[in-house]
């Protein structure tokens, strides 16, 4: 309809993409894994209160037309807020590309800085969890981004997570050694694309020494060297999974 009315194609694509994110938000607040928020507040805990899809005994059904909290109007308002925020942080449009961190589509000595938040070792099965949203996005905007939605579910084989213990059948090769080898490969790519004497900033959250050992080994074997480290509090205290958690 927008195109018929003469809207520029890229603009229409952006609008539809943001609306699709709104549909994702509704799905997040509208699944059978949404439980009552026992602390009060906004009533319903969204599906991803934890970075997991846990069993739930019962669920709370929220009204998608509710003008506050979990409804469509809020989804649209949030979108508007994010767009306004993002448009204030940079005057140069960002170029977003999708590739594995182990083979970046850039030449040597290309970037002044690399800032990365690599996967947290064993903690989060990102790709499996992303399928929850992927199946909706594939239906709503899959035709606009055919290259990003070519597969029925998210691609999993190159995802760098120590997944063997989650599912030893599907992920039998993804053990500690595999994780370390792949993270090393990714850090080597950071080193390759960085200009000499420039900086890589790596965020990592984990409570186990084993995970830190893996990351530091990968760093030391990548060509990068450590100049400083900072403990940073990055997460909201009130999160459902904040208790005794590092990430
Ligand atoms: C700690 S999370 C980053 C979260 C992000 N900073 C945010 O706030 O949403 C690590 C991310 O690395 C991604 N990842 C895993 N393997 C990857 C690979 N081979 N190439 C690129 N990204 C990968 C995971 O899918 C996950 O989204």
From TrEMBL:
GO molecular function: methyltransferase activity; nucleic acid binding
GO BP annotations listed: methylation
Protein name (record): DNA methylase N-4/N-6 domain-containing protein
């Amino acid at each position: 309809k927008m195109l018929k009315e003469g809207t520029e194609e890229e603009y229409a694509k952006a609008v539809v993409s943001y609306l699709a994110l709104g549909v994702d938000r509704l799905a997040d607040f509208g699944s059978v894994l949404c439980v009552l928020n026992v602390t009060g507040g906004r009533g319903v805990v969204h599906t991803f209160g934890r970075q997991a899809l846990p069993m739930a005994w019962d669920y709370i059904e929220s009204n998608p037309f509710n003008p506050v909290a979990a409804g469509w109007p809020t989804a649209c308002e949030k979108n508007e807020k994010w767009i306004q925020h993002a448009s204030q942080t940079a005057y140069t449009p960002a170029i977003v590309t999708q590739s594995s961190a182990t083979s970046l589509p850039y030449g040597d000595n290309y970037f002044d800085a690399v800032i990365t938040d690599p996967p947290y070792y064993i903690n989060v099965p990102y790709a499996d969890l992303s399928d929850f949203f992927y199946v909706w996005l594939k239906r709503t905007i899959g035709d606009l981004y055919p290259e990003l939605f070519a597969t029925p579910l998210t691609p999993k084989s190159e995802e760098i997570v120590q997944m063997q213990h989650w599912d030893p059948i599907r992920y039998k090769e993804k053990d500690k050694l595999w994780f370390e080898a792949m993270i090393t490969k990714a850090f080597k790519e950071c080193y390759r694309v960085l200009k000499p004497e420039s900086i890589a900033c790596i965020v990592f959250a984990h409570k186990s020494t084993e995970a830190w050992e893996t990351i530091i080994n990968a760093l030391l074997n990548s060509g990068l060297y450590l100049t400083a480290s900072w403990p940073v509090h990055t997460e909201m205290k009130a999160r459902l999974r904040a208790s005794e958690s590092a990430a």
